[in-house]
């Protein structure tokens, strides 16, 4: 098999990036330092007013816009269709920076699937080769339904077209056909927990984590009892699985106690997201609801646990995807951004420093179709930040122009072809040298594989 020749997509115009002194002014950006201060004051007043409600049996607190009738929410609407398309698109892109390097080719794990072509950064090229070998061996499919880079050990998780979930070269849920998965981790000097949860084709939730052998003697894969007709699941902390059903209702379950808590006043929910101690629901009409949740039934949410951004995001409209700070610290919420149907962003940040970082990315990226936001470094020259730090990951727009960590996609392989080697999947060296010389970055546009 001769080595694949990789070239830039024909007909794609030059990319509009933030590097080389080029700036893009996004008039839709709604976050300034003054707005943050005002939102914080408003949220503090709201928390004080509602402080006597946090001890109820559901152990949660919420702020949401109830002025709209949920009866108007329909998963058959044009807005819902745009949201579902965004969900499917974003299931195929993931990036994680693990080492804090400012070099684009160091400690930057990025994966993207486009049809049967799997793209990878240098550090993620081993994940590409592992999955490509599974395909060549007939164990996995060339078509990928979902992929993720795990945030701690930087392994690849792939969901293939047959509903098999691959964690490295291990199948996670043998005997089950999975349609969607989500994972969560927490690590410190004395504690590590990584949970992977999947939705089966019959609407159940299966899960696996490092805690499993401690809390379960039964070697069978555990199922979250009482969770039925599930469409999507989100792992919330070390013991909670939040999920949205096919009918748009939402709930969350404790995997240790088995208790299911209905979020009875939410309906028309398309997807759930987690940031800090907060669960965010994206509704079919492109608006948001959110509530803070305590994982401990004995320790309900306190007034000072209510995040600063709840009131602000409740006013957002036309949202198709949510991107959040992915440092997995339950005690910190640095930013929340909403991707609109036109590919622009609206965002809210915790402080002026976070707002400046958001402005360099979400404030200038346009026509975005996929975005991943695990923390990362990008050079100061590219993003006009004096300290060189940026924590917003990468993105790809509708013309396949690459932003942030997506520019590190320097390996590609058509999975319909028998796997050869990592070297065979690498982009042409002359092309790399030329691209790298252009403002110290790699690919400006997504390569095509012949």
Quick gist of this model?
The chain has helices spanning 33-49, 78-90, 125-136, 212-215, 310-313, 352-361, 380-383, 422-425, 429-437, and strands at residues 6-8, 60-64, 93-97, 108-114, 117-120, 144-149, 156-160, 165-167, 170-171, 178-188, 191-200, 205-209, 230-236, 240-245, 250-254, 260-262, 269-275, 278-283, 288-293, 319-324, 335-340, 345-349, 368-372, 376-377, 389-390, 394-397, 402-404, 411-414, 447-449. It is α+β, with helices and mostly antiparallel strands and 450 residues long.
Q: Could you walk me through the main structural features you see in this protein, from its secondary elements to its overall organization?
A:
- With 450 residues, the chain is an alpha+beta fold.
- The chain has one domain (31-89, 108-369, 409-417): Methylamine Dehydrogenase, Chain H (7 Propeller), CATH 2.130.10.
- It is 17% helix and 32% strand.
- The strands form 9 sheets. Strands 2-19-18-17 form a 4-stranded antiparallel beta sheet. A 4-stranded antiparallel beta sheet has the order 3-4-5-28.
- The longest helix is centred in the N-terminal third of the chain and has 17 residues, at 33-49.
- It is globular and about 55 Å long.
- The two termini are 13 Å apart.
């Amino acid at each position: 098999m001769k080595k694949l020749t990789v070239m830039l997509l024909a007909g794609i115009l030059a990319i509009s990036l933030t590097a080389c002194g080029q700036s893009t002014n996004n008039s839709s950006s709604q976050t300034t330092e003054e707005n943050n201060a005002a939102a914080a004051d408003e949220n503090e007043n709201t928390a004080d007013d509602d402080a006597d409600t946090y001890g109820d049996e559901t152990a949660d607190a919420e702020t949401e816009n109830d002025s709209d009738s949920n009866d108007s929410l329909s998963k058959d609407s044009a807005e819902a269709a745009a949201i579902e398309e965004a969900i499917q698109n974003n299931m195929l892109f993931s990036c994680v920076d693990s080492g804090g390097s400012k070099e684009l080719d160091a400690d930057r794990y990025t994966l993207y699937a486009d049809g049967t072509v799997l793209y990878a950064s240098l550090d993620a090229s081993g994940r590409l080769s592992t999955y490509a070998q599974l395909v060549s061996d007939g164990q996995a499919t060339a078509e990928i339904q979902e992929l993720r880079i795990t945030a701690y050990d930087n392994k690849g998780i792939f969901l293939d077209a047959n509903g098999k979930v691959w964690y490295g070269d291990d199948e996670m849920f043998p005997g089950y056909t999975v349609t969607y998965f989500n994972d969560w981790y927490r690590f410190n000097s004395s504690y590590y927990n990584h949970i992977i949860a999947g939705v089966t084709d019959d609407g159940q939730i299966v899960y696996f984590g490092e805690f499993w052998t401690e809390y379960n003697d039964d070697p069978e894969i555990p199922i979250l009892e009482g969770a039925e007709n599930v469409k999507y699941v989100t792992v919330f902390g070390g013991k909670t699985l939040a999920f949205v059903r096919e009918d748009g209702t939402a709930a969350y379950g404790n995997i240790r106690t088995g208790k299911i808590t209905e979020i009875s006043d939410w309906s028309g929910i398309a997807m759930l997201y987690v940031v800090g101690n907060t669960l965010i629901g994206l509704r079919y009409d492109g608006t948001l609801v959110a509530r803070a949740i305590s994982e401990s039934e004995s320790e309900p949410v306190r007034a000072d646990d209510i995040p600063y951004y709840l009131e602000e995001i409740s006013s957002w409209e036309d949202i198709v995807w949510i991107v959040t700070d992915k440092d997995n610290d339950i005690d910190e919420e640095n930013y929340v951004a909403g991707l609109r149907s036109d590919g622009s962003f609206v965002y809210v940040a915790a402080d002026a420093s976070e707002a400046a970082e958001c402005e360099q990315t979400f404030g200038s990226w346009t026509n975005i179709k996929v975005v991943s936001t695990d923390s990362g470094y990008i050079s100061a020259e590219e993003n006009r930040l004096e300290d060189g730090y940026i924590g917003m990951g990468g993105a790809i727009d509708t013309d396949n122009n690459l932003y942030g960590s997506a520019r590190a996609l320097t390996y590609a392989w058509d999975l319909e072809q028998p796997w050869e080697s990592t070297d065979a999947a690498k982009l042409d060296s002359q092309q790399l040298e030329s691209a790298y010389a252009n403002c110290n970055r790699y690919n400006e546009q997504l390569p095509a594989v012949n």
